[in-house]
Each structure stands twice: as C-alpha cells, then as structure tokens.
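Following up on my earlier thread - several people asked me to post the actual chain instead of describing it. Fair enough. Here it is, all 329 residues.
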Amino acid sequence: MKQNFTVRQGALDGVEAFLSVAHHRSFRRAAAELGVTPSAISQAVRALEERVGAVLFIRTTRSVGLTEAGERFLARAEPAFEELVAASALARELGQRPAGLLRLTVPPSVVPILLEPLIASFCQAFPEIEVEVAANEELVDIAAEGFDAGIRLGQFIAADMVAVRLTPSFPLVVVGSPEYLHRRGRPERIDDLRQHACIRMRRSNGSIAPWSFVTGKKPIEAVVSGPLIAHDFPTMLGAAVEDMGLAQVPEPIAAGPVRAGKLVRVLEAFAPMAPGVFLYYPSRHQVMPKLRAFIDHVKSRADAADKTRIHIDDKQTPATKMVGRAEFH
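Reply from S.P.:
Thanks for posting it. Predicted structure:
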C-alpha cells in the first residue's frame, strides 16, 4: 500500500554535520572533515536540534557525547543518509555515462522493419544500457508515462517535441492481393474505391481515418468502407494478404509482401508522401547520456545507410531508384 507522507522543508539540513560530529565526537574534527568552520558546524547542529525538538549532544570543554535522543537519531539517520549518498552517486553516474534503462514507445509495425536492427547494434555498442520497447499504436504522453523517447510518423508528433529523422519520406500506398484484384478488378481512379472492400484504421481518438491521396499537387481525402476496421498497420496488411480487400499503408511496411508477390500496388499515381519516421523526445536540455547515445547511434546508422543508398542508386536505372529510396534500410 502506498504511504502518504511529507517532509518538512529543511528537515535534512544539518544531518551530515550531526553524523560527522557523532563519528568524531568532536566539532573541530567534523569541521575539518567537511571543510567548514567549527562555528558553522555548531550552528548547523543547533538548528537541527531545534527542528527535532531535543538535545542531541552532551557538550563539555573536554568531550562531546550523545544524549539518548542523539543515540536514537543516529541509529536511524546514519543508514538513511548512507542510502541518500548512494542514491545521489547512482543518479550522478547515470547523468555522466550511458547506462541504465532506456524506455521507448513505438508503433508495432516499426519494430521488425526499423527498430530491431537498430536495437541489436545499439545493445552491442552499449552493454550497460537496457532497452525496453513498448509496442503501442496509440499516441502516449512519453513524459507522463515514463518513456525516454518515442518513434512515430512525422505527422503525429507534437510541435513542442525534438525530432530526429529515422527514414526518408515515403508514399502511402494502396495494396491488394492478386486474388482479390482478380476477383474484384483493379481500381484505376479514386472513385473506383466505392466498389471495393477497403480495410480501414481506427485512430487513437476513436475516429476512422480516411484514405489520403493527391491529384496533381492537391491533397484529397476519401471516405471508404469495408468489412474490417483495424487498429494498426500490420493487421491491415495481413488482412490484405488474406484477400479481404484493399489497404492503404506506408510503403516500407508493404515492400516485403509486394516483392514476394503477395500484394500488388494500385492507384500509384495518386499516392501521397508521408514525412517519414522520427525519433522524438521532450527537450534538448533533459537528454540523459543513455538517450544521447541512442540518438547518436541512430544518426550514425542513418548516415551509413545514406552513403550505401547513394552508392546503390548510382548503379540502378531511374525506374528502380524510386523504390530504393522509399524502403527502410
């Protein structure tokens, strides 16, 4: 059961001075240990005694001893103060080097495609950091829920967050299985979707997301209908593979099934561009070394991928370059 308690302001002031005097049985030696004057030690102990409401030391011109109240105070205060010192040292250590638990909230679809390769190489590079990945399609308050950072599509990240790009922009594509398209026909225009079973997604706010398209440079939204409402992209993709209907998903998520011939892209001329996937966190001034290490690792991997992509693109035909840029690497 959670206990409710309060500590009076300044209640811990003078405790270190008290413990030093109790250990040395001398105000002078305590002052030397703490690097202050004997007068300062005496004032700190006197103020502590006033707050406690009891005399803690018996003072004579030749010696310093503990009263019964002082003995009892020492028995409780010394182990508690040692725990505080240890806690401070641990917090300081985590604030100075990459170590501890790094908690990330990510969409389920991102984990196998993007995050698993990053996590594997990151854990090898930083063995003192433990990584916890919470796969959740809903947008969460990362500060309130105790996460260090999140990963989301760029359009879902709040403006007050610091964002680090993980992928290039990519199209949102409409896909269907060869069997479904053979049975229902291939849509050639956006209006053709009225005659098709469309797999939809329910947003975290409860609304059903419309499908997005562009005609020329003009963005438009289409309200579609179909037999299934999903809460994440992998479910939509799986339903499309199982011939249930058409699905609109980020191109990198569909790339594998498309290459395998399980899905076919349609309405490609109307595909809008999504801004890409980003790592985001609340503030530049609150970045712990564990998160800074992950951010730097992400950037170094992204730079290496960009160099590899440029090298590959130089050897590709113009038709294949577009696909190469759209996929996660």
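The first strand starts at residue 57 and ends at 59. That should answer part of your original question.
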